[in-house]
Specification:
The strands form two sheets. Strands 3-4-2-1-5-7-8-6 form an eight-stranded mixed beta sheet, with helices on both faces. Strands 10-9-11-12-13 form a five-stranded mixed beta sheet, with helices on both faces. It is 37% helix and 17% strand. The chain contains 15 helices and 13 strands. It has 386 residues and is α/β, with parallel strands linked by helices. The protein has two domains: 274 residues, 3-Layer(aba) Sandwich (Carbamate kinase), CATH 3.40.1160; 92 residues, Archaeosine Trna-guanine Transglycosylase, Chain: A, domain 4 (Roll). The longest helix has 24 residues.
Length: 386
């Protein structure tokens, strides 16, 4: 499907999609380059303007969750670490542990000046990938925002490993939006939106105001670099965040933070790129779609790919190859004949059994397994299309 790159005239304006009246719960993500200056000091005056914007939205009835980067960059300065604290995993962990205290204190102090209470939550990838821990985090977030508290969230970089981490706060913000049942996400960034090409190298590049669907055409426009060199994300991570948020029924905007009072400016001008939310899936399927990890992969033939697109379950006869080590109930990705992710779901068999059944018709399953087979490799009730 070709992406719709133009806003429909009758559609709500960008600011309206994120206003307190239409977006009761909003997640705001702020990048490191906005919070910490090149010398590694907190940009307190700029933060004060953001907090004033947040306070105005809360006064208008909106509940706010903040996803705040900056701990590593801030801690690296205090510890005198090279490369902004990213020379090694150990440096990043030490910088995060040091910088998080100062960063959280600043948020709490600035919010308190407006009569608002801050709460800190540090999460790891596993906290949101494991279903039970995800539900616990969701319950905590719901209680905090119901009480009028402003949760300030960051990845727990002091314990995260290179292999098991979000790696950027764009995707974390989208997952937090899902857990908090938010209606919108605003990514304040050192870029002001998605362009048709890299505006730094192509003078003909133009800003795309609205995207209906993140597809191959949109992904081809992404630049993997972080403009500041301070953060860990880039446009690729923002597009992945948009995909996660959309699947959860939340609009996502990329807007510039390179100005004072950026939230107020976005509410007034709508300048940026808005990724329109898809029709909301069930909570469980949205959680599946938003996961960043899977225990295995099932390759399927063209017939199975077509059947999945029509909302059917994945039968063993349509599987061509099984990869990974997984047990029944684990999350697996389903890939089309070209190797592109097609769907994600909960597998009904362990890896060894699934490999034995791949490509075999159901009437042969009992003889292969030695017991009555289940209806499908992945049932449609436990699967979501990507």
């Amino acid at each position: 499907m070709v992406a719709d790159l133009t806003a429909a005239p009758a559609a709500p304006s960008a600011p309206d999609r994120f206003s307190p009246a239409t977006c009761p719960r909003l997640v705001i993500k702020i990048g490191s380059a906005l919070l910490v200056d090149p010398a590694g000091a907190i940009r307190r005056d700029w933060m004060a303007g953001v907090v004033a914007d947040i306070a105005a939205r809360i006064a208008a009835g909106q509940r706010i969750v903040v996803v705040s980067s900056g701990a590593i960059a801030l801690g690296a300065r205090r510890l005198g670490l090279e490369r902004g604290g990213r020379a090694s995993l150990e440096d990043a962990q030490a910088a995060a542990a040091t910088g998080q205290i100062a960063l959280s204190h600043c948020w709490a102090e600035l919010l308190d000046a407006h009569g608002l209470t801050a709460a800190q939550m540090l999460v790891t990838l596993d906290d949101l990938e494991d279903r039970r821990r995800y539900l616990n985090a969701a319950a905590t977030l719901d209680r905090l925002v119901t009480l009028g508290v402003v949760p300030v969230i960051n990845e727990n970089d002091s314990v995260a490993t290179a292999e098991i981490r979000f790696g950027d706060n764009d995707r974390l913000a989208a997952r937090i939006a899902q857990a908090a049942a938010a209606n919108g996400v605003i990514l304040l960034s050192d870029v002001d939106g998605l362009y048709t090409a890299n505006p730094g190298t192509d003078p003909t590049a133009t800003l795309i105001p609205e995207v209906a669907r993140v597809d191959a055409r949109i992904l081809a426009m992404a630049d993997r670099g972080s403009a500041s060199g301070m953060g860990s994300g880039g446009m690729v991570s923002k597009l992945e965040a948009a995909r996660i948020a959309s699947a959860a029924g939340a609009h996502l905007a990329i807007a510039t933070g390179r100005i004072d009072h950026p939230l107020a400016a976005f509410a007034e001008t709508g300048h940026g790129t808005v990724f329109v939310a898809a029709k909301g899936a069930s909570a469980r399927k949205a959680w599946l779609a938003g996961r960043l990890t899977a225990r295995g992969r099932i390759h399927v033939d063209a017939g199975a790919a077509s059947a999945l697109g029509q909302g059917k379950s994945l039968l063993a006869a349509g599987a061509t190859r099984v990869e990974g080590r997984f047990a029944r109930g684990d999350v697996v990705d389903i890939l089309d004949p070209q190797g592109h992710p097609l769907a994600r779901g909960l597998i009904e068999y362990d890896a060894e059994e699934a490999a034995k059944l791949a490509g075999r018709r159901r009437d042969a399953h009992a003889a292969i397994l030695g017991y009555a087979p289940r209806a499908a490799l992945v049932h449609r009730d436990h699967m979501v299309l990507l």
